[in-house]
Structures are given as C-alpha cells and as structure tokens.
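Students often ask why inverse folding is considered easier than folding. One informal answer: many sequences map to the same fold, so there is more than one right answer. In these notes we will look at a single instance of the problem. The structure comes first.
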C-alpha cells in the first residue's frame, strides 16, 4: 500500500483550509521554463482520500498562471476536494497541439501520483476557464491526448467548463475575425485542418 503521508515540501498554513504543495514538475521539456510544466496541489488538512479537481487557467493560450485560481483552492478543499492548478506552455513560443499535450501530461501525472497528496484518482474531475476550458474539453473528447500518456478519457469523471473559448475555431474566425487575428492565429495557425484538429466540437 502506498503511503498517504504528505511530502516534505508541503506548506501548512494554520489560517487556511489546506496544505499547499507548489511548483511540482509534471514534465521536463527541453528549452522550456520549469514553471510552465508544473502544478500546485492544495489538499485538505484532515487526512483522508478525497476527490480531485484539476484546474486549467485561462489567458488566451498566451498568458496566465496556475496561481490565478482566485479562491478556488480554499473553496474546494473546504468542501472535501484536493484541488490541483496546472500550468502549460504558452503561445507564441508554442502552438497547437503543445497546450493540450501539456494538459494531458499534467492529468496523467495527477492520476498516477495524487494518492501521495490524499487524492483519489478514481474520482478525478477537470475544470477550465476560457482558453483553459477549451483545453479541458479537448483533452477529454480527443482520446489521442490521454492515450499518448497511457490513459483513457474515462479516468475523467466530470468536466466543468467556465466561459469557454475555442470550441469551434473555424466558427470563431467566421464570427469574430478581429479576435481571431489577435489571439487564435498564434495559438492555432492559419490552416483549416489545424483548426478542426484543435476544436472540441
């Protein structure tokens, strides 16, 4: 049986509802700042085996950080969840499919390791905001992404999509061409084939 004890890096804050373990690497990618392939874990102080909510931040695929989770860590841990906030590589340094590949790597790391932080990998949920909602949707409905990490989308028991962006990228170009030119091109390029590949619909 694996130990459920908290890692030495865990930070106990007597004023919060959780124990925070930050800047944990879920992957190492050459020429990539380590922060972009890391995650933060917030676990309830009381020992147990809790369901897990993985959060994917927004920011137009070009900005944002796992620290931008507002009060979600406190809210979820207070209600009996382990809360995980992930980072991923950003455009224009990378383009699709790098963002969703990183998301899949993070989900796989959590699935395989979250027991060390009082998390139950059989109760794994995914939440994203804006561009993060796009990534949460895509990694769930596109089986190739988790299969590349040795998993299937069935390990994700539920998905929460907040203010979603990019579900149908070709439609965004049609309806909001100015927005597309500013944000979507650097993340998804200029070919209809790539837009289709990157669209959760």
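Output (designed amino acids):
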């Amino acid at each position: 049986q694996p130990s459920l004890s908290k890692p030495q890096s865990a930070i106990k804050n007597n004023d919060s509802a959780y124990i925070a373990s930050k800047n944990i690497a879920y992957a190492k990618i050459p020429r990539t700042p380590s922060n972009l392939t890391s995650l933060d874990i917030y676990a309830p102080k009381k020992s147990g085996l809790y369901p897990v909510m993985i959060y994917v931040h927004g920011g137009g695929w070009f900005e944002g950080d796992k620290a931008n989770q507002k009060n979600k860590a406190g809210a979820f841990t207070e209600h009996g969840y382990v809360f995980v906030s992930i980072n991923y590589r950003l455009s224009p340094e990378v383009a699709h499919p790098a963002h969703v590949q990183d998301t899949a790597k993070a989900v796989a790391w959590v699935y395989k390791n979250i027991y060390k932080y009082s998390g139950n990998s059989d109760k794994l949920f995914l939440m994203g905001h804006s561009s993060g909602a796009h990534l949460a949707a895509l990694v769930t409905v596109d089986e190739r992404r988790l299969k590349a990490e040795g998993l299937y989308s069935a390990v994700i028991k539920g998905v929460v999509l907040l203010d979603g962006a990019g579900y149908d990228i070709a439609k965004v170009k049609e309806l909001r061409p100015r927005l597309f030119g500013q944000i979507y091109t650097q993340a998804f390029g200029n070919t209809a084939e790539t837009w289709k590949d990157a669209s959760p619909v």
